[in-house]
# Entry
Amino acid sequence: MELTHNPNLLWYVLIYGIVIVGMGFYYSKKIKTGEDFVLAGKTLGPLVLMGTLLATWTGGGTITGGGNSLAYSFGIWPALFFTLPSLLGIAAISIIAPKIRKLGKYTISEILEIKYGKFSRVLSSIIIIMAYVGIVSYQFKGVGYILNVTTGLSIDTGTLIGVGIIIILATSGGLMSVATTDALSAFLMFFGLIVAIPIVLTAAGGWDNIVANVPEKHLTLTGGLTPLQMLGYYIPLLFLLLGDQNMYQRLAASKGDKATKIGAIGWFLGILIVTPAVAFIAFAARAMFPEINPGMALISTTLIMPTILGGILVAALTAFIITTGNSYLLSAATNVTYDIYTQYFKPDATDKEKLFFTKFSVPVLGIISYILIRFFPTVLSIQMYAYTVYGAGITPAVLGVILWKRVNKAGGISSMLAGVLFTLLWEIALGRPFGLNSSIISVPIAIIVLVGVTLLTTKNNRTRLSDSTKKAPLASR
# Structure
């Protein structure tokens, strides 16, 4: 089947864009303090929390990468298995959510500073920014794909338009705006996908015809991937979620523990439905459009739906991508302000100055994200790089603070350095040997270093203390 454009779909995108921009400016008038901008004044109720968690976690990564690209490139089973890391991560993060709220911190770096000291705060901020600009970059590309499908506009030009939209929205209303538009987008997306599945399967000629028109290996459990290669896609997702600052900030922004619990349950159920739905639709797209970029699989199916349904779905997809870009861009800017600017340049900054600098940081980081996307061949490749930088460099150290009283400064800092250095070594210097994503190497190393260095330095400290006590003169004992 030939991929043709449907410019009528653009009207739905434009109308929805006007709605969310209007909401952004409306909520921007309610922003009075830095806490309002970063944590929505801690006013998120369970429905809004549920929507923003779902929309942020299933943004451009799900729509253009993740299960979408796996289903198109390797088959239905690897894509369906991609749901499991998210479900495990949500279950785990729900258990530790009350502890996260009690810490009352704006950023993950502030949490790490509790155990690992000031150096860990700036180090973790740099790692988070490295990861988040990567995540933001493929949201830009997602907008480019949507504009290409609907209008025929080149992907590069559409990506530039995505840069402008996401930066403007992230600068306007902060989390208060992003969370509300997330919720609206999440419910539209949920409705659109559920209705789209039977329509797309029918348009593709039914399941038997789909199966007959995809490569044979795409019907196997592994899709031609080795077990280690499959783990290389799943581990980064799990370890990003377990320590994701964006998710922690949303949980901290809820009204209370009850709202957090209800929101997390809704998030879990939403993922259980949305991620497999994306996988099935993208798998059908492989049979209909075998020559397109894998990142465009889900988006391309909006062209074969009735215009009104395709329009609603493409508008929701666009909103998911944009709000995810807003969220990660805003979160990275928060690190710049609270963990670098106020710590090393303006310790006595007023709340207004912090708010101004956060807004100033947004476009700067947005430009860096745009530059980064031009160096990666696919959305899936930059997605795995960004997830692994974060999952190996941050998550083991964060979980150490929350769950292990014995963890110490030497173990935490060593783990962060090891996780990032081995990721960069494997991905860039070695060029990803054996076709394995770096998470297979860097995440286990980061965990081993965290535990090993903590135990070793704790033992050494006790030995020194014992020796000094034995050697001390009797009068001093």
About this structure: The first helix runs from residue 8 to 28. The chain has a mean pLDDT of 86. Residues 332 and 357 are 12 Å apart (CA to CA). The radius of gyration is 23 Å.
